[in-house]
Amino acid sequence: MTSSFPPDPGHDLPVVVIAGRPNVGKSTIFNRLVGRRQALVADTPGVTRDRKESETTVRGRRIRLIDTAGLEEAAPDTLFGRMRASSESAVAMADLVLFCVDARAGITPADEHFAAWLRRQGRPVLVLANKAEGRQGAAAAMEAFSLGLGAPLGISAEHGEGLADLMGEIADRIPAGPLHPRRAPRRVESEDEDGDVRPPGPLRLAIVGRPNAGKSTLLNRLLGEERMITGPEPGLTRDSVSVMLHDDEGPIQLVDTAGLRRKARIDETLEKMSVSASIEALKMAEVVILALDATLGVHEQDLQIARLIEREGRCCVLALNKWDAVEDRNLTRQAIRDRIEMSLSQMRGIPVVAFSALTGAGVNKLLPTVRRAYEVWNRRVPTGELNRWFEMMVSRHPPPLVQGRRLKLRYITQAKSRPPTFILFGTRTEQMPEDYQRYLVNGLREAFDLPGTPIRLLLRGSQNPYAPTK
Fold first, then answer.
1. Quick one: which of 64, 185, 294, 308 has the most CB atoms within 10 Å?
2. Phi/psi at 52 (5° precision)
3. Are residues 196 and 205 in contact, defined by beta-carbon separation less than 8 angstroms?
4. What 3-state class would DSSP assign to 410?
5. What is the mean pLDDT of the chain?
6. CA–CA separation, 336 vs 173, rounded Å?
7. DSSP states of 410-448 as a string?
8. Alpha carbon distance 238, 230 (integer Å)
């Protein structure tokens, strides 16, 4: 059995890499070993483009498992050439390579070519003949003997056949190390049930935005290595990819996501899966970087993504990428701020960082801004100070009349943070007009220094004890 954990940078784990030509079932094997559907799987060649990593336990041994893009012959400057280079860099650090072939299709010239290449790398290799279900499949798997990489192991990742043998082989072949007891996956909550209790672990940070906004280039710049495949083609990233990053204040679990387009433009099943993975990564994050192409300004789709971030209660940092290509920076910055203030009043004061992910200019300001936004998102206001402010706000602007009767507002308290959530108690508060609610929310934001973060105001009216109950 296997179990998946968040990355643990404190341990130097054995690296197991799954490699092979496209559409042989590498991502399905990855999901089986991790124990959950983490990598996108579709009956289309070349779904996986960027390396997907996860830590898992196999027969009591902790490993770092890497799913790679399909190995194909291509020029280095092409998309497939960049995908192959990423896979080769993963193989270079592997303690064990799981070389996957398709037992149904038989051994192809591409399999033979890359098997010869693997022999030259000097890495331990285990040949997996996938899609070898049934008696005929087991017989077809024996054809992989011809690759000269040892005895193949016939499995069917889709049907779960042969996985116990596979885990036993992995445990036997990886470097010896301490046994780790099985643990359940850490439960990550989208909303803290107890108000402020945060699950232990690194800060969860997601990068979202429209296609070709430079999200993957930004992640590479933050990591200082070419971890993600980048290029002029829009929509290169298809799956959400999580990596670990360390700054001076601690670890960050950073997730790069596929570009989010309008629903009307999403046609293919694969793109729907990519968008679903991006939205799921946004919901699991604590801080979200909304990457914009500064040369194009704020698009309506950017505003839709920002509204989704606010609706999910996540704090947001607006990242203006490609700042080096902007001609009139003052005019562009002011135009973006005006559009944000007008269209996203519920996130007034959102922090904005301008930079160029390609050159690195200004990128060093991003993570400190993320940390400050995270502190605001976690901020709590003492009840006494909060109610003194509340009395001042009510005396300055009394509640309006509703059906000829004035609302009676009694007191306010902060129920939780992440995001800051306040409960207002009184009589018939559920009838309070929205403009008065905005008046109070804007006052909270200004008085207690809560810029950019979503603020929740919950209304609680008193019940008439003599009123008939349903």
1. 294
2. -115, 130
3. no
4. strand
5. 80
6. 55
7. EEEEEEETTTTEEEEEEESGGG--HHHHHHHHHHHHHHT
8. 12
